[in-house]
Amino acid sequence: MQQMILDVDTGIDDALALLLAVRHPGVNLRAVTCVAGNASLEQVVRNTLTVLDAAGAGDIPVAAGAHRPLLSEAHSAAHVHGADGLGDLGLPESSRTVVPLHAVELLRREILASPTPVTLVPLAPMTNIALLVRLYPEVLDNVERIVFMGGSASVGNATAVAEFNTWHDPEAAEIVLTSGAPITMYGLDVFYAVTIPPEDIVRLAASPEPGTQLAGRLLQHLVTVKGSEVRVAGDGHGDIGDAGAVCAAIDPDGLSTTHLPVRVSLADPLTRGQTVVDHRTAGHDQAGAGDPLFRRIDVALGINSARYAKLFLDTITR
Ligand code: BDR
Ligand code: CA
């Protein structure tokens, strides 16, 4: 059984990821930690508990974490995720409650208590994970890998060059990238690639089963999103976003990665939050592979979209 923890800013994509992780028979979702990102921390917590209800999850501990990034101001993504962060679907409040621990403490507890090393899957600005790494670096000994959604080796979405999660808290991303843990960057280069066809979205949304139906309704919302982020493949397909990172954690062979030097841009306002990826293989005349500030991580550059779409659909409709 794979031991997994999700760090989320639920968020439509995060909701799809939670549904997948809760439902997958090979995953023991040990905890879910929340952070401000797509929506305020309070909203993220509410949404996370609601999604766990719909997923039919057992008693998975949920904790609230950071209200805001380490240095940056918080920015909302309501234009993508709706005012409530979950597509304004009018979902019921959950009667679940959070554990009386800060997210960092819950992360520490569950990582140390895990019988086998944990796969940590941050799907949000990495504020909680950076705090964990700074406060309790020893927990990394029981972390198998960090598979994070964030960054880009090409274009951005929050800005021309920066992806939303790394742009929202660049200092946190840099702390995590330099933590020494094995890291997979599931960034924008693959993020939009796993799509669900319109007929499957309709089928999911029409299901009487609450978790399946929620997945369908969230995908229906995403298909309508316009603006800075193109979430539609053009023919009514909806992408599963963050849930793809959970697919990558469960089934890494569906992803093709390259071990590359990466550094997060912190100071320059034009590039702040950009994950600068050094693709050069030889002849570094200046900064790059030889620069100690660049750390090598596994950057996802290719993906078997059909394989992950099947994994998602099969699991969600179990
Ligand atoms: C990331 O930002 C959020 O909108 C999504 O949930 C995802 O984690 C994509 O840039
Ligand atoms: Ca997210």
Global Rg: 18 Å
CATH architecture: Alpha-Beta Complex
* CATH homologous superfamily title: Ribonucleoside hydrolase-like
- Order of neighbouring strands in the sheet with most strands: 3-2-1-4-5-6-11-9-10
**How many strands in all?**
11
pLDDT averaged residue by residue: 92
- Shape, per Cα inertia axes: globular
**What amount of the residues lies in strands?**
15-25%
Small molecules held by this entry: beta-D-ribofuranose, calcium ion
Class by helix and strand content?
alpha/beta
Distance between the termini: 18 Å
Instruction: Spell the H/E element sequence.
Output: EHEHEHHEHEHHEHEHHEHEEEH
Total individual domains: 1
Count, helices: 12
Largest sheet: 9 strands, mixed
Could you name the CATH class? Answer: Alpha Beta
Low-confidence stretches: none
Offer a concise description of the structure.
The protein is α/β, with parallel strands linked by helices and 318 residues long. It has helices at residues 12-23, 41-55, 78-81, 103-113, 127-135, 164-168, 170-177, 188-191, 198-205, 210-224, 243-250, 305-316, and strands at 2-8, 27-34, 62-64, 118-122, 143-149, 183-186, 195-196, 238-239, 255-264, 275-277, 295-303. Calcium ion is lined by residues 9, 11, 13-14, 38, 123-124, 242.
Give a structural overview.
It is a single chain. The chain has 318 residues and is of the alpha/beta class. It has one domain: Inosine-uridine Nucleoside N-ribohydrolase, Chain A. 35% of the residues lie in helices and 19% in strands. It contains twelve helices and eleven strands. The strands form two sheets. The protein has a nine-stranded mixed beta sheet, with helices on both faces. Helix 5 packs across helix 7 and helix 11 crosses helix 12. The longest helix is centred in the N-terminal third of the chain and has 15 residues. The model has no long low-confidence stretch (mean pLDDT 92). Bound molecules: beta-D-ribofuranose and calcium ion.
